[in-house]
């Protein structure tokens, strides 16, 4: 593991019942960078993300072998150590899904909910964190006058930025994003891309994307997952297509 690594994956295999999805994957993921994961549909890209915060453990019949270590605050931690608390892990390894999933409540309550779960009860402190994070997600100026409105009434792009902000409010060290622009139009997608670029100074990002030009624009490193194996792709060799051309 290099000093610049944030995540170390060794001989990781994933099984769904008898079907093997990931086959002896090993990789070092750099810190403070955007790593894009590409490859054909149905190859396990989303599954790979879920192994990094153990979200797969909610899937009946699923199992993993191998090791994953993450460097939290300059200390390497085996995330499959039985003593690891899942809430602790998932606060540090946040996840944003393909389709925006705001909670059925106000914009403010969407942002306050993770703080409440984490035991932050000081309203002044909560308000300060909510404003700071919504600004970080390029959303504050658009919603500051309607924080009490239903979050589900926001546009698709605004909803996705809200979900990213909600994932960021507990200051995770890693953010996993599973095709975060696939349900958005081109303009909304570009705003998300700009947002992701601004986040990598303070957070390590792994992004699953099917879009060729998007990957070329945002990724510092590209990994291709196919037939259960992961390999590095040199930046600049993905050619052809448009912003919405699958890779």
Summarize the structure.
The chain is of the alpha/beta class. Helices cover 31% and strands 28% of the residues.
What are the main properties of this structure?
disordered C terminus, alpha/beta, Rossmann fold, 8 helices, 247 residues, four-stranded antiparallel sheet, 31% helix
The whole-number mean of residue pLDDT values reads 92
CATH class of the domain at 5-101 and 172-233: Alpha Beta
Counting DSSP E segments of at least 2 residues, the number of strands comes to 10
- CATH superfamily membership of the domain at 5-101 and 172-233: P-loop containing nucleotide triphosphate hydrolases
CATH architecture of the domain at 5-101 and 172-233: 3-Layer(aba) Sandwich
CATH fold topology of the domain at 5-101 and 172-233? Rossmann fold
Class of secondary structure makeup: alpha/beta
Low-confidence stretches: 239-247
Q: Give the quaternary arrangement of the chains.
A: single chain
Order of neighbouring strands in the sheet with most strands:
6-7-8-3-9-10
- What is the ordering of alpha helices and beta strands? EEEHEEHEHHHHEHEHEE
Number of helices: 8
Strand content: 25-35%
Largest sheet: number of strands, sense, barrel closure: 6 strands, mixed
Shape: globular
């Amino acid at each position: 593991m290099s000093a610049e690594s944030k995540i170390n994956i060794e001989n990781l295999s994933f099984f769904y019942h008898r079907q093997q999805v990931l086959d002896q994957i090993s990789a070092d993921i750099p810190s403070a960078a955007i790593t894009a994961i590409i490859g054909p549909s149905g190859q396990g890209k989303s599954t790979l993300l879920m192994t990094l915060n153990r979200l797969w453990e909610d899937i009946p019949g699923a199992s993993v072998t191998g090791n994953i270590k993450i460097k939290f605050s300059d200390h390497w931690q085996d995330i499959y150590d039985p003593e690891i608390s899942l809430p602790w892990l998932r606060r540090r390894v946040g996840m944003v899904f393909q389709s925006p999933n705001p909670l059925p409540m106000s914009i403010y309550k969407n942002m306050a909910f993770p703080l409440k779960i984490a035991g932050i009860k000081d309203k002044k402190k909560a308000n300060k964190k909510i404003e700071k994070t919504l600004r970080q997600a390029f959303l504050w100026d658009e919603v500051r006058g309607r924080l009490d409105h239903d979050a589900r009434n926001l546009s698709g792009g605004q909803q996705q930025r809200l979900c990213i902000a909600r994932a960021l409010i507990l200051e995770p060290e890693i953010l996993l994003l599973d095709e975060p622009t696939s349900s958005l139009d081109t303009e909304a997608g570009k705003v998300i891309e700009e947002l992701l670029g601004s986040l990598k100074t303070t957070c390590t990002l792994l992004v699953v994307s099917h879009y060729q030009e998007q990957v070329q624009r945002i990724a510092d490193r590209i990994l291709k997952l196919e037939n259960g194996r992961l390999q590095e792709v040199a930046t600049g060799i993905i050619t052809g297509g448009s912003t919405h051309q699958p890779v």
